[in-house]
Design a protein that fits this description.
This protein has 94 residues and is mainly α. The protein is built from four helices and no strands. The relative contact order is 0.12.
Amino acid sequence: ADYSVVRTLESIQHLFALFFAVEMMIRFTAEGCAYFYTSPNLAWNYLDFSLVAVSIVEVFSQFLVAGPNSAASFDTVANMRVIRIIRVTRLLRI
């Protein structure tokens, strides 16, 4: 793939990881830790937390191992991206 396309997609990935991490911090602040772990949406909260944690680990591992200017990816962590689609199903629940 073209290097500029790869860099653009990585930048978008980093922005989404940052966005969801900020969203998670806002939720912790607004709802409190106790509500986060005892709410009726506990399974969704755990899923959200897991996906944000994996996103952050993936972004930092790319910077630490490959450097900020490399297009390297890690298959094991990258495969977790597929699970992020589950977040979209939250919009579809009734």
